[in-house]
Amino acid sequence: MFPWLAFGHMLPFLRLAKIMARKGNRISFISTPRNIDRLPQLPPTLASLITFVKIPLPPVDGLPPTAEATSDLEGHEILYLKRAYDLLRQPLSGFLSNSRPDWILFDHAPFWLPAVARELGIPTVFFSIFIASALAFTSPPADEEQDYRRRAIKEWMDGQKWGSVVYVAFGSEATWSHEELTEIANGLELSGLPFFWVLRTRQSSDDSKLPEGFEERTKGRGVVWKEWAPQVKILGHDSVGGFLTHSGWSSVVEGLQFGRPLVLLICYNDQGLNAKLLQQKGAGYLVPRDERDGRFTRDSVADSLKMVVTGEEGATYRIKAMEMKELFGDTEKHDDYVYALLEYLETNISRKL
């Protein structure tokens, strides 16, 4: 543990150390000699589990020789204490390198400590004695442009009818030829459905160009978003009624966890197997292609979307997707799988498989 040099910080850290030590954990509590000497004495039952590590505070011009805590200084002198505290980086790095703790719990002041810990391969925990709302005023400001873009997405989604929007995204690696992209765009236009299309464009490539006038003709009921978008948040919005996807498994999981029926337009790799499984389970509909050359058309895209999102025949897909939500959206069950994996790894940590 490495708290800031103020007793309002050191004492809460020490209380936490005692709680953790009562569970049998060994704690190294790091501070300066004079501060450690002024801390409350440990109960005999915990003395063997909590070790006080004294690291002398480096001298700094303007800092009195005996000052090691904020209580030793006037307000205008604390700046010098901060400078001295930052100089503890090197001796603390040496201690951590030699002792190799399992975790480091640190305070707000040592902004440099996470970088040191990463170099040594030691995980860190930030223990804040401030409330969360106060931290909001000390953290870096939000990216205003990014925040504006996210608000724009939400405002557009909020303006659409429940379950009416087709969310369109094909992952970060799937690529389409200009002909294929044209058919997808024209299919969206022919469907007459509202859509939000996250279109990954490639610089200096004609393949990323949409049909002339497409965005103008679909303006109002459709959005073509050419930047990164928060896919999970969009899929979780009540206005989304279907997901036109390449069938990448991460996207499949993200769609079904919200019960979104899937319209499957595969590109390559595992996507064909994924789509076949989903179609067999009734959770997704594969856009028909010409069996001779594998091409799909604007009509096949439009008909697939209308059927799955609004058509009577597509009700079975919508119902099945909501059933799948119970499985894919069960975070407790997912956590249980992770815990089972962790238990297996811990049990077999020294066993050669």
TrEMBL record:
Record carries keyword Transferase: yes
SUPFAM superfamilies, A to Z: UDP-Glycosyltransferase/glycogen phosphorylase (SSF53756)
Gene3D superfamilies the UniProt entry points to: Glycogen Phosphorylase B (3.40.50.2000)
Pfam families: UDPGT
Swiss-Prot/TrEMBL keywords: Glycosyltransferase, Transferase
UniProt-recorded Gene Ontology molecular function terms: UDP-glucosyltransferase activity
Family membership noted in the UniProt record: Belongs to the UDP-glycosyltransferase family.
Name assigned to this protein: Uncharacterized protein
Organism for this UniProt entry: Linum tenue
Lineage: Eukaryota, Viridiplantae, Streptophyta, Embryophyta, Tracheophyta
